[in-house]
Write the structure tokens for this entry.
Amino acid sequence: MSEPGGPTSTPAAIGRVAAATPAGRDRPTVVLLRRGLVEKQGIRTRTCPQCGSSPSSGVFIRQLTRVPLWLRVLFIPSFVFFPWGPGVVLLLGALLRKRLRFTTTLCEECARADQRARLWRRLAGVGVVLLPLAAVFIVGSMPLELTVKVPLIMTSLVAGVAHAWAAHRGTRGRALSLARVDKVHIGLLGSSAWHEVLSRERPELLADRAVE
Ligand SMILES: [Zn+2]
């Protein structure tokens, strides 16, 4: 049996956008779960599965979305066919995204860090769309040669994507996200503690375990 164990994260971590999980837990890892069970029962553990050390302090609702990678990759080239290209990509994104709603236990600190990290990612994602659109309208209305306008707009596009990429990288391991969803499985991308905690406390949720 595992000990309840007190919080091990340092107080210095609180209030920082970065590093809200204890050191060494930041390495993101995909844990493959049984979708049916997770959706029906939720994830209930005594230990917070995100930091693997603090006791869980409550049950939190999480709604995660996954847009296919090929569609995200198509976003930049789609601007060649502005405005229909990006419009079609955004529409396909809304149609093809997969959403998953489930409940999970977490400690207060990890729940906050996850929420903050996912908000940061969403804002960066909105920037990917808004930055180039703003550039199209602002640069487009300026009396400039097309050879100056196009590189300016492309720069804003690349800057938005680079920022979103940095926001994504910077919050890996703290933000819960979906690496995969199909009818049977959920690939949950979180900290490396998930597998360990679930193996100990809720092995039936893990897809790589035989069901009794
Ligand atoms: Zn935690």
Notes: Residues 1-24 have pLDDT under 50 and may be disordered.
